[in-house]
Every structure is written in C-alpha cells, then in structure tokens.
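Task: sequence design from structure.
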C-alpha cells in the first residue's frame, strides 16, 4: 500500500469518525477488502440487533439498513471529492491562489476607502457601510467547478448555476465574474460607495449581478436563500441541469426562514447547496450562544440531506466539496449542506475593527493582530491567524514548485494595482441622479400616490360600472369561489408556466376551501403542496418568478402571512427597486370575518402591505370582479396580493352570471355599485348625490344595503367599490367626492391605521374644496376579531351603525 493510499485511508477514517464514529471499526476492517462498500454492508449485517421496532412500524433491521445506506453514501462522497481534488491542474491551483489574493486586495482597498473618506459627496466623505471577508478568501474556490461565464448568458437570460453570496463571500462573486476582472472589482467597490452603475445603482449596498449568476443578498439574511430555493424549484420543474448555491453565516443559520427554505428544498429534492460559513462569531455573538449543535453540518441530518464539514481555509477541499455537491444536485440527488469552519479576521464591518481587535491596523496582506482589548477571543484568533489561507496555500504551491515567493509577490502587486485603477475609475463615476430611486420601481407611478402625487386627469379615468350590468343573487350564476376557480383554470389553460403552490393545494385535496377541486383534472400536476412555511411559500414563488415561471402562491388564511412578512416586504417588494428585475407573482390571500372564525382566521392584513412600495393589492367583492381581476393579476409584471373574502366564497346572494366576453378588469379601477355616474368622462360633473359610501370586500354589499335603505328615505347615495387598494383609483374617488360633497368610508378592518383612514386623509388633502362635510371613517373596534358570534357581532360595524352615521352626515 502506497504512502498516499495510507493517507487517503486516514482521511476517510477521520471523516467516518466525524459523521459515523461507531462505524470506524467496521470501515477500518473493510478497507482491506477488494470491494469496500459491499464489505461494509456485509459487516454491518452481522451486527446483532433487537427485534423490537425502533419507531411505530419500523423494524430495527430497517432502521439499521437506512443508516448503512447513509454510511455508504458518505463514503461514496468522500471518494468523489478525492477524485475531484486530484484532478486540479497546476493552472487551476494558481488560479485559486490568484483569486484569493485578489479577494484580499479588494478587501484592503475597501478598508482604505473607508479610512480615507473616499468617495466624497458634496465634498464631504461618504464612508459607506463596507463588509469584508478577511481570513475567508478560500471561498473563491467554491466557484471553480460551477457553471459560470459568458457562455451561460444568452437570449437575455442566465442559464448557468447561481450563487447567493452574503457579506463574507466576496471571493465567490469575484470568481463568478472573473471573465471581466476589472469590472468585477469596480462593482465590488461601488457596492460600498453607492455610485451610479453596477452592482445596484446606489439602491442598496450589496453586490449582485443576476445576469452573471450572482444573486444579490439582502440585509435580512434569509431572503436570498428563500428566493434561490424558488429558482431551484423552477429549474427542476423545467428539467434544467443547474445548481443553486446559498451562503449563510453561523448567525444567519438561526433564522427561521433559512430553515424553512432548507426544508422546502429537501422535501422537494431541489438542486440546492446550502453553505454555512462558521466563522466563529455572528457580529459579536459566539457560536455556542447561536447553536447547541456539535457542528452545523449535523443539522442537515434532520432534513434528510448529505453534508460535509471541512476546513474553510483549504481552497482545494472547498473546490472538491462544492463541485461534488453541485454535481449531485444537477444529477437529481437533491440538496446538500456544506459547513466551512474558519474565522472572521476582522470586525463585522469597517467601523467594527476597533471594537473587534482593540485597535485599527494599516490594511495589508498581513492579518491584523488583536491587542487583547477587543471583543474577539485573542487566543482563538491567533490559532486561526496561523492558518491564514493565503499564506498557507502560497507556501503549499511554492513547496510543490508551482510558483516562487517572487511570483506570489507579483500576484499581490498586480491585484493591488488593479484595485487602485478601479478605485480611480470609481471616483469619476457620477452619483445617482436625485429621484432616480423612483425609476427602479416597476409600479405605474401615474396610478399610485406612494412615490408622488400626480395631477389627476379626470378625462383619463375609466367609468366602470360594477354589479349593475349583471345582477347579484342570480340562481343561474356562479359563486365567488367558482369565479376564482374558473379564473385560475383560464389562466393555467393559456400559460404552461403557471404553477400554484401552498399548503394543501395539490390533489386530491385542492385547497382547504375546495376552491381548486374543479381544476384538479386539468391542472392538478401544477398544484404543488408545500410544508407549513409561509416564508418559504413566498420566497419560493418569488424565485420561480425570477426564473421565468408564473407562480401563484397561496397563504391558506391571510392572517398567517405574518410569518412570511420579511420575505414579502423586505424581499419581494423591494427586489425590482434594488435590482431592476421584476417579480411577476400572485399571492392569494383568503381573508375576512363575518364567519365567527376568531382572531387568527378573520383579519384584514391588507393595511400591512398598503404602505409597502412595490406591491399591488386587489380585493374583489363580486364573482365578475374576482374573475376579471385575477386575469389582470396573472398578466402583471409586478407582485400582486389577491385578497379573497372567505365569507363571500359561497354566499348565494352574490351569485352572478359571467358575461361570455368577460376579460381582464384593469387593476387600479374602482366600480360604482350604486349611483353610477352617467356624465361623460372628462365632462362637467353634476353634484347629484347626497353622499357616497366607499368600501371594499364584503362590506361593499353591506354599504349597498345602507344605500338602498337611505334611498327609500328619499336620499341619493352612491356606493363606490374600490376593488384595487394599491394602486387606488383616485380619479373615481375624486368624482365621488365632487358628485356628493360628503364621503363615508366603511369596512371591517379596525379604523385606526386603516387603508380607509389613509384615503380619508388623501381626500381632505386633495379635494377639500369639494367637501360639504367631514370625511367619515367607520371601522371595527381596535381589538382582535372575536370568535364567539355575539362578540364578533359587537366587534364589527352593524347595519344600524352605518345607517345612523350616514344620516348624520347627510344632515351636516
């Protein structure tokens, strides 16, 4: 047996001791056999086991077989990685060293920018918020075996693997874009500087280039992982041989949404690789206060995926691990987890070095040393400083004769010179133009007040008649629920890229309200069940949209969206603004009270998102509107929240016959339910109403009953159904105000902080000259929605409440 074979056997036994310690004797004995794996299986079969079940209906023998399969899979992975490492050429190794040196050179330049106050805005230093990866440069090697480079960018899309680096993974981003090194360096520097141009045109402080396979990170750390999982889902559904690599730190791995994404990938066998950079501290929190797991790799066992924990300063081991894992993913083997054990050799960000190390040091290729006054563990830091990945790998290549010390110094000088030149170019870049951030938003600013208050043009406002053209309560008509189901079917008929995902949506169940049952035979294969994980549902839908599919996510009850709030508000809503890439997805949101369902199945969560730039919100109240607005939502390039009032689903009193020629109803258009305006668009308005009630959802029908009662008393009352909550139809709201002079807004949400309160404020600001009385807002009590029928009845607006308030306003 050769010396190298003995060394390889020792490495294998070390891996077995790490992952399967009680199997070390079996594997050691089997190493002498001609066929290792069959011998291990044979030896394991001799282990005496009890006859009892380990868990219900699982015999001990079956459990042992599962563990033997995991052991043999671990050994197969080991030999695959050994073979990959052995295939590294001299050129590959020099490329790795050069890339690691470049990563540190960029790091040095970022720190010098911070200390020098470059760049300057209006002659004042703008230091920016910079993150570095000092001591973790070996991550550059993760990209060597991945599919990247110009050949994968074609037809206006990216067809290679995708990496989602975080703040310690600069090397991966540089490696993925190394075909244009100088531009990559400048982009990395500009992420801190915030000037015009790549990576994010000043909209955010992170790196990213989707058209080069680099997914931009977000400060709430789990967002990128959630969305990348969706891109992996899309690749699997489309049969693409691609891999998606997510990075997270030891601290970020505590996030619930990260675990939701990992579980989503594992249960669906997605082509994902999850990397945990265990750098010993999350800002200042040590690992033992972050996780009780022995190693982060062990967490993969709970998700049923293979894993490996390796030295995060060894570039060759990193190359082999990531290439093995991505090969496995592309081949249909599902996700894997890689833990890199290393240490952050600098503060959390530039400003934190003083606190971390106890002193500021001149940026250089030498690692700074702590003086004992910082919060870093000095002894631990010194141990890791001795494993400086650049020094260690340079020594290895020099010792093997691949380069000399002079060659290494030339690499450093060249890298610093490139960075210096990039910095000079960066200084000449212009700052983003004032107001340019509005240009990032794909929402039509002419129809929304969130960014600006455009001059209203009544001539361009569509006069849309609501239920008058198709009476409610027609026994020949269809229900609200059936209209949505038909719209889903129509949308899916014409779009093979459309998918529904959510809890219990797949056959045979078809949604907890049975809404999708009628579409199962035609489209059930595209209804995807998910774990109970709202964050993962939203993030996966977003990633699928970025990959070119048209996903429809379902939050089973809109109340539960709270657990996915971060991904929706900080991820989905901001994505187009940050990157210029649209997320064309629909999120179905069953909502509403009037059903005695209690505080967690009855809320109106639309106000949570009304003030979130980047989201559109629709809320139909009739079958016709539900059908037409869903078609519009499916055609939107932006994320749309589609609110469906549960109390209306099977309400026979609102059945409608759908017109044969019914198509999409434009988002942003309100509808007159009572008192429709007959004057021509743009024509002179007649003040022909005593008052107008504005509402949305189920309370539209209650408002109509109020109008009918007041009509019997001789009053002319209009009812305007908003239908779209963002953007609002301010043109129709103005017409209502100028026709009536008196406005009452009613709904089932609590009044305080409601959308209706915001509209009332807007009416006062914009149309005060048309008002003949105070804008009145009525809502539910400022309390959770009760469960008991009499309590819910007292909580919500009653018919008499609305009638009395309307009569008082008319008398005003």
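Answer:
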């Amino acid at each position: 047996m050769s010396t190298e074979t003995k060394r390889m056997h020792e490495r294998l036994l070390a891996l077995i001791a790490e992952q399967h310690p009680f199997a070390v004797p079996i594997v050691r004995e089997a190493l002498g056999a001609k066929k290792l794996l069959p011998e291990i299986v044979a030896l394991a079969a001799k282990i005496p086991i009890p006859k009892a079940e380990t868990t219900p209906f699982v015999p001990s023998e079956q459990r042992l077989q599962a563990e033997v399969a995991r052991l043999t899979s671990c050994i197969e992975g080991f030999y695959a990685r050994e073979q990959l490492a052995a295939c590294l050429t001299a050129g590959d190794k020099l490329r790795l060293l050069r890339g690691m040196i470049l990563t540190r050179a960029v790091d040095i330049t970022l720190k010098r920018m911070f200390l020098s106050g470059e760049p300057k805005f209006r002659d004042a230093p703008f230091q920016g918020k910079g993150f570095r990866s000092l001591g973790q440069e070996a991550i550059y090697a993760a990209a060597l075996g991945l599919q990247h480079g110009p050949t994968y960018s074609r037809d206006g899309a990216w067809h290679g693997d995708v990496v989602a680096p975080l703040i310690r993974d600069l090397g991966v981003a540089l490696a993925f874009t190394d075909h244009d090194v100088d531009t990559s360096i400048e982009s990395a520097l500009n992420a801190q500087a915030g000037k015009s141009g790549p990576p994010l045109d000043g909209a955010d402080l992170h790196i990213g280039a989707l058209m080069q396979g680099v997914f931009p990170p977000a400060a709430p750390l789990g967002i990128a992982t959630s969305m990348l999982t969706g891109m992996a889902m899309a690749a699997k559904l489309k049969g693409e041989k691609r891999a998606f690599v997510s990075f997270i730190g030891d601290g970020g791995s505590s996030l619930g949404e990260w675990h939701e994404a990992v579980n989503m990938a594992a249960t669906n066998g997605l082509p994902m690789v999850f990397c945990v950079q265990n750098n010993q501290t999350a800002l200042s929190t040590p690992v033992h206060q972050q996780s009780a797991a022995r190693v982060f790799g062990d967490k993969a066992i709970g998700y049923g995926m293979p894993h490996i924990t390796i030295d995060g300063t060894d570039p060759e081991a990193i190359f082999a691990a990531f290439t093995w894992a991505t090969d496995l993913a592309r081949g249909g083997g599902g996700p894997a987890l890689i833990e890199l054990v290393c240490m952050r050799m600098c503060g959390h960000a530039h400003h934190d070095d003083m606190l971390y190390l106890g002193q500021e040091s001149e940026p250089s290729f030498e690692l700074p040393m702590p003086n004992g006054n910082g919060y870093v563990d000095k002894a631990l830091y010194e141990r890791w400083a001795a494993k400086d990945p650049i020094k260690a790998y340079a020594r290895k290549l020099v010792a093997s004769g691949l380069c000399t010390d002079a060659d290494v110094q030339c690499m450093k000088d060249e890298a610093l010179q490139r960075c210096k030149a990039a910095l000079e170019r960066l200084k000449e870049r212009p700052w983003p133009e004032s107001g340019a951030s509005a240009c990032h938003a794909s929402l039509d600013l002419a129809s929304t007040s969130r960014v600006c208050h455009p001059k209203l043009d009544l001539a361009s406002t569509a006069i849309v008649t609501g239920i008058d053209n198709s009476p409610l309560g027609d026994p020949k008509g269809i229900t609200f629920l059936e209209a949505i189901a038909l719209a889903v079917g129509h949308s899916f008929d014409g779009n093979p890229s459309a998918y529904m995902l959510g809890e219990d949506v797949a056959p045979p169940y078809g949604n907890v309200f049975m809404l999708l049952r009628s579409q199962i035979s035609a489209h059930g294969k595209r209804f995807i069940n998910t774990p109970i994980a709202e964050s993962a549902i939203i993030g996966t839908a977003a990633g699928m949209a970025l990959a070119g599919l048209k996903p429809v996510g379902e939050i089973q009850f809109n109340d539960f969206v709270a657990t996915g709030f971060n991904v929706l508000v900080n991820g989905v809503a901001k994505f187009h603004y940050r990157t210029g890439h649209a997320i064309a997805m629909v999120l179905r949101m069953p909502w509403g009270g009037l059903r005695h369902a209690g505080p967690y199945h009855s809320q109106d969560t639309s106000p949570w998102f009304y003030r979130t730039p980047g989201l559109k919100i629709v809320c139909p109240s009739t079958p016709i509107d539900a059908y037409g607005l869903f078609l519009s939502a499916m055609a939107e390039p932006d994320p749309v929240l589609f609110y469906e009032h549960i109390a209306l689903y099977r309400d026979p009193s609102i059945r409608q016959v759908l017109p044969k020629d019914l198509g999409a109803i434009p988002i942003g258009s309100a509808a007159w339910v009572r008192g429709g305006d007959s004057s021509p668009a743009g024509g002179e308005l007649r003040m022909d109403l005593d008052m107008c009630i504005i509402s949305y959802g189920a309370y539209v029908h209650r408002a109509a009953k109020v109008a009918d009662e007041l009509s019997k008393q001789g009053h002319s009352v209009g009812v305007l159904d908003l239908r779209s909550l963002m953007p609002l139809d301010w043109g129709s709201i103005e017409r209502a105000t100028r026709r009536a002079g008196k406005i009452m807004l009613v709904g089932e949400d609590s009044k305080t902080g409601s959308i209706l309160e915001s509209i009332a404020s807007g009416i006062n600001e914009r149309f005060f000259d048309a008002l003949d009385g105070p804008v009145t807002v009525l809502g539910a009590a400022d309390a959770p929605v009760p469960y008991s029928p009499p309590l819910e009845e007292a909580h919500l607006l009653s018919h008499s409440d609305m009638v009395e308030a309307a009569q008082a306003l008319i008398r005003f």
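Confidence is low (pLDDT under 50) at residues 438-468.
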